[in-house]
Amino acid sequence: MIVSSFNIRGIGGALKRRRIRDMVRVQKIDFLALQETKLEIIPDSVCYKIWGSQDCEWVYLPSVGRSGGILSIWRKSNNSLIFSFKGEGFVGVCLEWGVTKTICFVVNVYSKCDIVSKRRLWSILTNCKRGLGDGRWCVVGDFNAVRRTEERVGVNTVVGGLSQLN
């Protein structure tokens, strides 16, 4: 299974959708995880255009206004959707994949930046794994994690008591 994940930072433009569609075709992607769609509603036509055909199924978590939004799309002919599950900052699917009917859980994450929200997200995902049983797990997405504070771009930080935009 070839899985690809991108923070798309808005999926509204035709050029962006075309580039993703070309990548899906050329790289033979089986599962596409997109974060920050910035769409409250994702119509069938958008998913078909992104995927390049109607041989797909999808599940999404809508944005809140122009913030966030998660979309997972996968090749319909290779699998059967057993169920999907959603929570704050993630959308997951349980699939029977391929001719061997391997049970696969794929979770698409878009984590908030604050540590409390991150801990809550990982606690929920850990409980999902415990409660949903055996199978192969793949967790992908934008975890909003950095090794050093300097790596954060566009986030307010406090320096010497003054707020500064990086």
Characterization of this structure:
With 166 residues, the protein is α+β, with helices and mostly antiparallel strands. It has one domain (3-165): Endonuclease/exonuclease/phosphatase (Deoxyribonuclease I, Chain A, 4-Layer Sandwich), CATH 3.60.10.10. The chain has 3 helices and 10 strands. The protein has helices at residues 14-27, 44-51, 115-132; strands spanning 3-7, 31-35, 56-61, 70-75, 79-87, 90-97, 102-110, 136-142, 156-159, 162-165. Strands 1-2-4-3 form a 4-stranded mixed beta sheet, with helices on one face. It has a 4-stranded mixed beta sheet with strand order 5-6-7-8, with helices on one face. α1 (14-27) packs across α2. The radius of gyration is 17 Å and the shape is globular. It starts with a strand and ends with a strand.
Q: What's the number of domains? A: 1
Number of strands: 10
* CATH 4th-level superfamily: Endonuclease/exonuclease/phosphatase
- What is the first-to-last residue Cα distance? 38 Å
Unreliable stretches covering 5 or more consecutive residues: 158-166
Radius of gyration from CA coordinates: 17 Å
Read across the widest sheet, the strand sequence of neighbours is 1-2-4-3
Please summarize the sheet with the most strands.
4 strands, mixed
Mind telling me the CATH class?
Alpha Beta
User: What do the pLDDT scores average to?
Assistant: 88
**What is the CATH architecture term?**
4-Layer Sandwich
Identify the overall geometry: globular
Pfam family, one: Exo_endo_phos
Keywords: Endonuclease, Exonuclease, Hydrolase, Magnesium, Metal-binding, Nuclease
GO molecular function: DNA-(apurinic or apyrimidinic site) endonuclease activity; double-stranded DNA 3'-5' DNA exonuclease activity; metal ion binding; phosphoric diester hydrolase activity
Cofactor: Mg(2+)
